[in-house]
Model the fold of this input.
Amino acid sequence: MTTISIRKKLSDYLQVADDEKIKAIYALVEDEIERSALTYTDELKNELDQRFQDYKKAEK
Done:
């Protein structure tokens, strides 16, 4: 089974699974989800804001 088909099956299942199963699945991957969350430092936020401002200026 391909990764794409597995993702589809999991996605479909999550739509109909009962609350207890959803909580159990989440518990299995919770640490990974938390570790993969992107943290925006003030420096990164400032850089993104500056790039967005530059982009808007270039549009005009």
About this structure: The chain is about 85% helix and 0% strand.
